[in-house]
């Protein structure tokens, strides 16, 4: 067995494993979760800290501060633990519980901030981390999105490893884009080492801006580029070098999630969401490449960090990523075709109280049994169905009329200042009987039906009971 002096010597050096695919090309996965901290971010954790030490930005007794979706935090925390630094990490409330627990296990102090904030908001994780670093004596902000030591780590380690492991035969590199450091650094090295024909392909959540999407939320952690609708300026990380990337393949959340679940069950490889996105894209690349092609896909992290999410059937079913039991009456059976064809009734949280009242009163005139509508920071567009993270509240006719009468609201106010609790949500594949029971115990007789995490329709307990009583 090999013997090492410290955990730092166990960073990187990850193997390639053959992935079965329908294409003629050879497809190999680089298993970054076999690095000591469990992800590709171990490499940049060490690189960024050692660069900061060299530049005199981090010294004995110092504090490492960063905003992270989890994996970079683990990389920083394990290196900091070995070197004796304090670590303070800021995460959003959408980060999996397993990641937060792992960060704390390495001794990091974790600050959780709301996810649904524009970049300029003081509680946005990146802004909060920057302010924390400025006000903490001896602190250094890692700033992975704009730190040149991020892509450099992959240029110096990941790229050379892939070149050596494939004996220079690699023809395609597929990688997710998050901060952009992995694909930029490894991709640049491989292009320089090869004969100029190697293709670098980005894999990205379909709604991410990297893939040409509208920036709306998605369910894959540690990948993509989300843009809150209230963000004043869209800023891309300088760790991402678009000139290295030949094309970007958009991958829907459902495809990514089913790909990673299938990989665990057919090849015994337990990987995370961004890995599912990358692998789904790699299958497409391999299918279109020739028999002589060698495709390498980087699988950034482990599925152990997402057991409560992506590998949890209840989580998948509740968001509509599983279709449920086709032999039972499901929530989808209570949704009419007209509901799916028409725009979802929904209020942008920037809507005025006056306009919200008009919409709610129209709902009553149209026979809406419960004058309530979901609301949240949904980007503009009459046909855009909001993702589940955008369902941040609800608005009721009775509450708004009462607020106007007692003077606590004005017709010109935004409904964001008068939101009530969000409506219940049901995945379209959930049993209708279970949904009817939950809705009967809720203050409102209206719920939102989700398919692939996207709001598809509103549903009432009456519609659920009708579906249950209809012969099949």
What would your notes on this structure say?
The chain has 14 helices and 16 strands. The protein is an alpha/beta fold. Helix 7 packs across helix 8 and helix 13 runs antiparallel to helix 14. The radius of gyration is 24 Å and the shape is globular. The termini are far apart. The mean pLDDT is 93.
Give the radius of gyration. 24 Å
Taking strands numbered 1, 2, ... along the chain, how are they ordered across the largest sheet?
A: 1-2-10-7-8-9
Estimate what percentage of residues fall within beta strands. Answer: 15-25%
How many helices does DSSP assign?
A: 14
Q: What is the count of β-strands?
A: 16
What is the helix fraction of residues, given as a range?
Answer: 25-40%
Largest sheet: 6 strands, mixed
End-to-end gap = 63 Å
Q: What structural category arises from helix and sheet content?
A: alpha/beta
The residue-averaged pLDDT reads 93
What is the molecular shape?
globular
Question: From N to C, what is the helix and strand string?
Answer: EEHEHEHEHEHEHEEHHEHHEHEEHEHEEH
Indicate the low-confidence ranges by residue numbers. Answer: none
Summary of the model, kept short:
With about 475 residues, this protein is an alpha/beta fold. It has helices at about 40-55, 70-85, 95-105, 125-135, 150-165, 180-195, 255-265, 275-290, 315-320, 335-340, 355-365, 395-405, 430-440, 460-470, and strands at about 15-20, 25-30, 65, 85-90, 110-115, 140, 170-175, 200-205, 245-250, 295-300, 345-350, 370-375, 395, 425, 445-450, 455-460.
């Amino acid at each position: 067995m090999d013997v090492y002096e410290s955990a730092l010597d166990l960073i990187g050096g990850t193997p390639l494993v053959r992935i079965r695919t329908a294409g003629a090309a050879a497809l190999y996965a680089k298993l970054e979760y076999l690095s000591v901290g469990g992800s590709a971010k171990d490499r940049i954790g060490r690189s960024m800290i050692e660069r900061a030490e060299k530049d005199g930005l981090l010294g004995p007794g110092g504090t490492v501060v960063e905003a992270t979706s989890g994996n970079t935090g683990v990389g920083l925390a394990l290196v900091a633990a070995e070197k004796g630094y304090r670590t303070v990490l800021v995460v959003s409330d959408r980060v999996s519980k397993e990641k937060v627990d792992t960060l704390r296990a390495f001794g990091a102090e974790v600050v959780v901030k709301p996810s649904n904030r524009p970049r300029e908001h003081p509680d946005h994780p990146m802004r909060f981390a920057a302010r924390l670093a400025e006000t903490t004596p001896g602190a250094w902000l890692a700033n992975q999105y704009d730190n040149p030591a991020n892509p450099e780590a992959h240029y110096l380690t990941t790229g050379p490893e892939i070149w050596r492991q494939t004996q220079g035969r690699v023809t395609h590199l597929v990688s997710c884009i998050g901060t952009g450091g992995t694909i930029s650094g490894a991709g640049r090295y491989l292009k320089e080492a090869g004969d100029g024909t190697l293709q670098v392909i980005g894999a990205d959540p379909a709604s991410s801006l990297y893939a040409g999407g509208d920036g709306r939320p998605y369910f894959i952690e540690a990948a993509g580029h989300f843009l809150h609708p209230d963000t004043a300026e869209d800023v891309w990380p300088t760790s991402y070098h678009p000139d290295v990337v030949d094309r970007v393949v958009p991958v829907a959340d459902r495809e990514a999630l089913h790909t990673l679940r299938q990989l665990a069950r057919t090849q015994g490889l337990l990987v995370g969401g961004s890995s599912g996105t990358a692998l789904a894209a790699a299958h497409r690349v391999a299918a279109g490449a020739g028999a002589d092609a060698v495709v390498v896909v980087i699988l950034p992290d482990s599925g152990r960090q997402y057991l409560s999410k992506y590998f949890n059937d209840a989580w998948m079913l509740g968001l509509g990523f599983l279709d449920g039991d086709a032999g039972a009456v499901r929530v989808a059976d209570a949704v009419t075709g007209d509901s799916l064809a028409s725009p979802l009734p929904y209020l942008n949280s920037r809507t005025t109280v006056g306009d919200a009242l008009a919409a709610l009163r129209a709902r009553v005139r149209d026979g809406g049994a419960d004058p309530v509508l979901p609301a949240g920071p949904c980007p503009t567009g009459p046909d855009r169905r909001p993702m589940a993270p955008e369902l941040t509240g609800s608005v009721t006719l009775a509450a708004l009329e009462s607020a106007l009468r007692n003077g606590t609201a004005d017709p010109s106010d935004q409904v964001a200042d008068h939101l009530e609790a969000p409506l219940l949500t049901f995945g379209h594949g959930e049993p209708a009987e279970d949904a009817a029971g939950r809705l009967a115990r809720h203050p409102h007789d209206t719920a939102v039906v989700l398919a692939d995490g996207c709001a598809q329709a509103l549903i009432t307990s009456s519609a659920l009971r009708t579906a249950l009583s209809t012969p099949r």
